């Protein structure tokens, strides 16, 4: 998908304010991202997610490289759009706890390539 995992490791330093990744990773301000590609949204054990994030997972959202690409540009907007598309506009309120956006497309591709090195899919 045009992502460079080595460059993505550098981009991930911004994510490390809140997230950890790898076999020993623990939840922090954000949930562990080990294995996130292929995982239903809002399901990492022991992390207290926002209703918006949890509801998206309950409605069927599973993280893929394509939807993480869209999510990173505007997490709350993406999850609200997903829930609205699933006929759950009543749940498309509030905001996610992830107060971070990554506008740069190439950086998003690279960081997703990096996330995939810790995921089975
Ligand atoms: C959630 C990725 C930066 C805080 C998530 C999720 C992903 C993600 C994929 C959903 C996880 C799940 O459903 O299990 C990233 C990436 C980042 C980044 C790739 C860097 C490019 C940050 C930063 C913060 C943050 C800098 C803190 C300022 C959170 C929090 C959640 C979250 C609190 C849970 C959201 C909720 O419950 O609503 N992140 N994140 N993230 N992230 Fe990030």
Number of helices: 5
- Full CATH superfamily name: Cytochrome c-like domain
Helical content class: 40-55%
- As a percent range, the share of strand residues is under 5%
Q: What is the CATH level 1 assignment?
A: Mainly Alpha
Structure class = mainly alpha
Report the major sheet. Answer: none
Mean pLDDT: 96
Radius of gyration: 14 Å
**How many independent structural domains?**
1
Q: Report the end-to-end length measured between terminal Cα atoms.
A: 14 Å
What binds here, in terms of ligands, is: protoporphyrin IX containing FE
Total strand count, please?
0
**CA-based shape:** globular
Low-confidence stretches: none
The CATH topology is what? Cytochrome Bc1 Complex, Chain D, domain 2
Q: Please tell me the CATH architecture by its name.
A: Orthogonal Bundle
Instruction: Return the string of H and E elements.
Output: HHHHH
Note down, in words, how this protein is organized.
- The protein has one domain (5-116): Orthogonal Bundle (Cytochrome Bc1 Complex, Chain D, domain 2), CATH 1.10.760.
- α3 (65-73) packs across α4.
- The relative contact order is 0.25.
- The chain has 121 residues and is mainly α.
- The longest helix has 12 residues, at 105-116.
- It has helices spanning 5-15, 51-58, 65-73, 75-85, 105-116.
- Protoporphyrin IX containing FE (HEM) binds at residues 14-15, 17-19, 29-31, 33, 36, 41-42, 44, 49-50, 52-53, 63, 68, 72, 96-100, 102, 111.
What keywords describe this structure?
121 residues, Cytochrome Bc1 Complex, Chain D, domain 2, binds protoporphyrin IX containing FE, 5 helices, mainly alpha
């Amino acid at each position: 998908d045009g992502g460079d995992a080595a460059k993505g490791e550098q981009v991930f330093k911004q994510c490390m304010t809140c997230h950890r990744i790898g076999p020993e990773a623990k939840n922090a301000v954000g949930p562990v991202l080990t294995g996130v590609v292929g995982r239903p949204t809002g399901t990492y054990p022991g992390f207290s997610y926002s209703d918006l994030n949890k509801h998206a997972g309950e409605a069927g959202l599973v993280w893929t490289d394509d939807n993480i690409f869209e999510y990173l540009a505007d997490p709350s907007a993406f999850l609200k759009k997903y829930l609205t598309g699933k006929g759950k506009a009543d749940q498309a309120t509030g905001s996610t706890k992830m107060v971070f956006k990554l506008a740069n497309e190439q950086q998003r591709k690279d960081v997703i390539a990096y996330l995939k090195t810790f995921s089975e899919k």
